[in-house]
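[09:14] KT: can someone run the structure on this one? pasting the chain below
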Amino acid sequence: MLRLPTFTYHRPKTAAEAVAIAVEHGKGAMYVAGGTDLYPNMKRRHQAPAHVISLRDIPGLQQVEVHPSGGVRIGSLAKLSLLEHHPYLRQHYSALAHAVREISTPLLRNMGTIGGNLLLDTRCTYYNQSHEWRESIDFCMKKDGAICWVAPGSPRCYAVQSSDTVPVVCALEADVELVGRDGTRRIKASELYRDDGIQYLSKTPEELLTRLFLGPPGNWKASYLKLRRRDTFDFPILGVAACLWFDRGVVQKANVRLGGAGSYAIPATETEKLLVGQTLTDEVIAAAGAAAMKPARTMDNTDLDVYWRRKMAPVFVARALAACR
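[09:31] RB: done, structure tokens below
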């Protein structure tokens, strides 16, 4: 049985108090919401914070609020199961509701939060193992070692971003709110992520993600498709989010993001360029899908064969675009 390491448990009543505790203890402190990612990682000794800061007692972060303009403000502690079944999200932001429904199992969606999924630790075949397993091959660069076993000659870590919601909120051009020692700031969700398996977030460690903002419904359509070995439970080995803005059937703007293929949700920029100014004919969709082959930088760091996963990227991108049509 894997056991948690010893730690001090804090239950602050405000976001400012939580940040103050995190600042006081520095690298020895970590936030926990639902705990579905942090606690298993602690059992495997990926993280071993001496101070765990629970966010469950902070009021006002569990709700989904619909603005009169039609936009939505989602508290970071909102349970995934709440978002999965929320009628307004299912009607107007169906891609996000669908992505949430694809996460793990109902049990974990009843525990996990949207904030936790947006900040999900990057994953890798060589990293997400027990301490003893990792010790037997020598530890990897992401934790306790100096070598990336995916690319041994590489100076960086190639652990992959495996959140289902990150590609969608980036494609939707959502905003996030962060509370830190210097106050509150609001940034684009896409600015929160970095293409690095270790330093995969741009926020400072003590900053607390408090809210997610979705723009009002408009002349756009979005979709999300997920590739995995099993039809449930598994993390994505490819997650495609597409959001297209239309004017009388012509694509005015396109955002396509590839999750599970790199350390952040990769923009399929060539696909996006091919779509702008076009109507979604079968030929345009096929060409735009084919353009997604190059940015899908699949490596031997997740499930199933590397080359097959890469070839599936154009297929899933084309299906996601067709769903927007």
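[09:33] KT: thanks! The radius of gyration is 20 Å.
[09:34] RB: yep, looked fine to me
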